[in-house]
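Problem: given the chain below (169 residues), write out its structure.
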Amino acid sequence: MSKLVAPQPDDRTLWKRLLARVHPDAGGDKDLFTWATKVRESLCVCTLKEEACSKVGSTTYTPERIPFDSDLGYVDEHVMLTLRALSIGKREEPLYARILRLLLDCPSQAHGRVALRQCRGASFKQLGYISHLAGLSKEQRGIWYEIARSVPLSEQHAHHLIGKLKESG
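Solution.
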Protein backbone atom coordinates (compact mmCIF):
# COMPACT_ATOMS: atom_id res chain seq x y z
CA MET A 1 0.00 0.00 0.00
CA SER A 2 1.43 3.37 -0.94
CA LYS A 3 1.49 6.30 1.43
CA LEU A 4 -0.43 9.45 0.66
CA VAL A 5 2.06 12.30 0.59
CA ALA A 6 0.36 15.52 1.62
CA PRO A 7 1.66 18.71 0.02
CA GLN A 8 3.32 21.36 2.15
CA PRO A 9 0.94 23.94 3.73
CA ASP A 10 2.66 26.72 1.76
CA ASP A 11 2.19 25.04 -1.65
CA ARG A 12 1.70 28.00 -3.99
CA THR A 13 -0.25 26.11 -6.64
CA LEU A 14 -2.76 24.70 -4.18
CA TRP A 15 -3.28 28.08 -2.52
CA LYS A 16 -3.96 29.67 -5.93
CA ARG A 17 -6.46 26.92 -6.74
CA LEU A 18 -8.18 27.19 -3.36
CA LEU A 19 -8.44 30.98 -3.42
CA ALA A 20 -9.67 30.93 -7.03
CA ARG A 21 -12.47 28.51 -6.09
CA VAL A 22 -13.67 30.38 -3.01
CA HIS A 23 -13.34 33.86 -4.51
CA PRO A 24 -16.66 35.75 -4.74
CA ASP A 25 -16.06 36.55 -8.44
CA ALA A 26 -16.01 32.80 -9.11
CA GLY A 27 -19.24 32.21 -7.22
CA GLY A 28 -17.54 31.59 -3.88
CA ASP A 29 -18.32 32.93 -0.43
CA LYS A 30 -16.80 36.28 0.59
CA ASP A 31 -16.40 35.20 4.23
CA LEU A 32 -14.75 31.92 3.25
CA PHE A 33 -12.38 33.78 0.90
CA THR A 34 -11.44 36.25 3.67
CA TRP A 35 -10.88 33.38 6.11
CA ALA A 36 -8.76 31.37 3.64
CA THR A 37 -6.66 34.47 2.91
CA LYS A 38 -6.05 35.00 6.63
CA VAL A 39 -5.10 31.33 7.08
CA ARG A 40 -2.61 31.68 4.21
CA GLU A 41 -1.14 34.81 5.81
CA SER A 42 -0.83 33.07 9.17
CA LEU A 43 1.63 30.63 7.62
CA CYS A 44 4.08 33.51 7.33
CA VAL A 45 6.35 33.31 10.36
CA CYS A 46 8.31 36.40 11.31
CA THR A 47 10.81 37.12 14.02
CA LEU A 48 11.17 40.52 15.63
CA LYS A 49 14.57 40.99 13.97
CA GLU A 50 13.38 40.24 10.44
CA GLU A 51 12.36 43.12 8.21
CA ALA A 52 10.32 40.87 5.96
CA CYS A 53 8.48 37.62 6.42
CA SER A 54 9.31 34.33 4.83
CA LYS A 55 7.79 33.71 1.42
CA VAL A 56 4.72 31.70 0.57
CA GLY A 57 5.35 31.01 -3.10
CA SER A 58 6.31 34.33 -4.63
CA THR A 59 3.93 36.19 -2.34
CA THR A 60 5.73 38.23 0.24
CA TYR A 61 4.04 39.47 3.32
CA THR A 62 5.41 42.18 5.52
CA PRO A 63 3.39 43.51 8.41
CA GLU A 64 3.20 46.98 6.91
CA ARG A 65 1.81 45.88 3.50
CA ILE A 66 -1.06 43.82 2.21
CA PRO A 67 0.03 40.45 0.78
CA PHE A 68 0.88 40.77 -2.89
CA ASP A 69 2.22 38.37 -5.51
CA SER A 70 5.02 40.21 -7.32
CA ASP A 71 4.07 38.39 -10.54
CA LEU A 72 0.97 40.62 -10.60
CA GLY A 73 3.22 43.63 -11.23
CA TYR A 74 3.68 42.93 -14.94
CA VAL A 75 1.79 45.42 -17.11
CA ASP A 76 -0.94 43.05 -18.34
CA GLU A 77 -1.55 41.58 -14.90
CA HIS A 78 -1.60 45.02 -13.30
CA VAL A 79 -4.17 46.21 -15.83
CA MET A 80 -6.26 43.14 -14.95
CA LEU A 81 -5.96 44.00 -11.23
CA THR A 82 -7.13 47.52 -11.99
CA LEU A 83 -10.13 46.14 -13.89
CA ARG A 84 -10.81 43.78 -10.99
CA ALA A 85 -10.78 46.72 -8.56
CA LEU A 86 -13.26 48.56 -10.77
CA SER A 87 -15.47 45.46 -10.94
CA ILE A 88 -15.39 45.03 -7.16
CA GLY A 89 -16.21 48.72 -6.81
CA LYS A 90 -19.44 48.22 -8.74
CA ARG A 91 -20.64 45.83 -6.04
CA GLU A 92 -19.50 47.83 -3.02
CA GLU A 93 -21.26 50.60 -1.13
CA PRO A 94 -21.13 53.99 -2.92
CA LEU A 95 -18.45 55.30 -0.54
CA TYR A 96 -15.96 52.57 -1.53
CA ALA A 97 -17.14 52.47 -5.14
CA ARG A 98 -16.29 56.19 -5.43
CA ILE A 99 -12.73 55.53 -4.26
CA LEU A 100 -12.16 52.53 -6.53
CA ARG A 101 -13.60 54.40 -9.55
CA LEU A 102 -10.61 56.74 -9.26
CA LEU A 103 -8.47 53.87 -10.58
CA LEU A 104 -10.08 54.20 -14.00
CA ASP A 105 -7.02 56.00 -15.40
CA CYS A 106 -4.36 54.32 -13.24
CA PRO A 107 -1.21 53.95 -15.37
CA SER A 108 0.75 50.71 -15.78
CA GLN A 109 4.35 50.73 -16.98
CA ALA A 110 6.92 48.13 -17.96
CA HIS A 111 9.85 50.02 -16.39
CA GLY A 112 10.74 52.80 -13.99
CA ARG A 113 9.26 53.78 -10.65
CA VAL A 114 5.70 52.99 -11.66
CA ALA A 115 6.74 49.42 -12.57
CA LEU A 116 8.43 49.01 -9.18
CA ARG A 117 5.29 50.22 -7.37
CA GLN A 118 3.24 47.69 -9.36
CA CYS A 119 5.24 44.81 -7.82
CA ARG A 120 4.46 45.50 -4.16
CA GLY A 121 1.29 45.54 -2.15
CA ALA A 122 -0.10 48.84 -0.88
CA SER A 123 1.15 49.78 2.57
CA PHE A 124 -1.27 50.14 5.43
CA LYS A 125 0.09 53.66 5.84
CA GLN A 126 -1.02 54.46 2.28
CA LEU A 127 -4.40 52.81 2.81
CA GLY A 128 -4.85 54.76 6.05
CA TYR A 129 -4.01 57.99 4.26
CA ILE A 130 -6.51 57.17 1.50
CA SER A 131 -9.19 56.56 4.12
CA HIS A 132 -8.31 59.89 5.77
CA LEU A 133 -8.49 61.78 2.45
CA ALA A 134 -11.80 60.06 1.62
CA GLY A 135 -13.26 60.92 5.05
CA LEU A 136 -13.78 57.31 6.21
CA SER A 137 -14.57 56.51 9.83
CA LYS A 138 -12.53 53.96 11.83
CA GLU A 139 -15.09 51.23 11.10
CA GLN A 140 -15.18 52.13 7.41
CA ARG A 141 -11.36 52.06 7.32
CA GLY A 142 -11.43 48.39 8.40
CA ILE A 143 -13.80 47.57 5.55
CA TRP A 144 -11.56 49.54 3.18
CA TYR A 145 -8.53 47.43 4.23
CA GLU A 146 -10.47 44.23 3.48
CA ILE A 147 -11.47 45.54 0.06
CA ALA A 148 -7.83 46.48 -0.64
CA ARG A 149 -6.76 42.93 0.33
CA SER A 150 -9.42 41.32 -1.83
CA VAL A 151 -8.24 43.08 -5.02
CA PRO A 152 -5.22 43.14 -3.97
CA LEU A 153 -4.25 46.79 -4.41
CA SER A 154 -0.66 47.48 -5.40
CA GLU A 155 1.51 50.32 -4.15
CA GLN A 156 0.92 51.92 -7.58
CA HIS A 157 -2.86 51.76 -7.10
CA ALA A 158 -2.54 53.40 -3.68
CA HIS A 159 -0.15 56.05 -5.03
CA HIS A 160 -2.63 56.86 -7.79
CA LEU A 161 -5.60 57.01 -5.40
CA ILE A 162 -3.75 59.39 -3.06
CA GLY A 163 -2.95 61.70 -5.98
CA LYS A 164 -6.54 61.68 -7.23
CA LEU A 165 -8.01 62.28 -3.75
CA LYS A 166 -5.60 65.17 -3.15
CA GLU A 167 -6.60 66.71 -6.50
CA SER A 168 -10.31 66.50 -5.69
CA GLY A 169 -9.92 67.54 -2.04
